[in-house]
């Protein structure tokens, strides 16, 4: 699977903040209302919206509106893609044997 750099960056950006990690940990137990996330994180609504946009843009989280509230959950497809990114970027080729030396000038 060919990974597009901008999509990989979006996934790692989503994982690159303590509050977003806390949101993901909360969502591991199932869908949560934004009001519950606000209460648990103790952040302002605009701050939560900022973090949720980054998580949703990465594809790892999906949101749905019900009445005046947003509900968020982990996307199975997004989670699988994130795992694929990590595997692809940390998988050492079995053919890798020697370090190539750089020769300058």
CATH topology: Arc Repressor Mutant, subunit A
Distance N to C terminus? 37 Å
- Strand and helix order: HHEHHEEH
Question: pLDDT average, as an integer?
Answer: 91
Judging by the overall fold, what is the CATH architecture?
Orthogonal Bundle
Spans of at least 5 consecutive residues with low confidence: none
Percent in helix: 40-55%
Overall outline = elongated
- How much of the sequence lies in strands comes to 5-15%
| Strand ordering within the main sheet | 1-3-2
Overall domain count: 1
Number of strands: 3
How many individual helices? 5
What integer value in Å does the Rg equal? 18 Å
The first-level CATH class name: Mainly Alpha
Q: Provide the CATH superfamily.
A: Winged helix-like DNA-binding domain superfamily/Winged helix DNA-binding domain
Briefly characterize the structure.
The protein is α+β, with helices and mostly antiparallel strands and 105 residues long.
Q: Could you please describe the fold and organization of this structure?
A:
The chain is an alpha+beta fold and 105 residues long. The chain has a single domain (5-88), classed as Arc Repressor Mutant, subunit A (Orthogonal Bundle). 54% of the residues lie in helices and 13% in strands. The chain has a 3-stranded antiparallel β-sheet. A hairpin with a 2-residue loop joins strand 2 and strand 3. Helix 1 (5-14) packs antiparallel against helix 4 (45-58).
List keywords for this structure.
105 residues; elongated; alpha+beta; Arc Repressor Mutant, subunit A; 54% helix
């Amino acid at each position: 699977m060919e990974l597009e750099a901008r999509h990989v960056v979006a996934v790692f950006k989503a994982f690159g903040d303590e509050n977003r990690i806390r949101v993901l940990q909360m969502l591991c137990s199932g869908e949560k209302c934004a009001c519950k996330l606000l209460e648990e994180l103790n952040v302002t609504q605009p701050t939560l919206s900022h973090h949720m946009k980054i998580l949703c843009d990465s594809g790892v989280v999906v949101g749905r509106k019900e009445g005046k509230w947003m509900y968020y959950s982990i996307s199975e497809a997004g989670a699988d893609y994130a795992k694929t990114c990590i595997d692809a970027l940390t998988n050492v080729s079995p053919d890798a044997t020697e370090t190539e030396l750089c020769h300058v000038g």
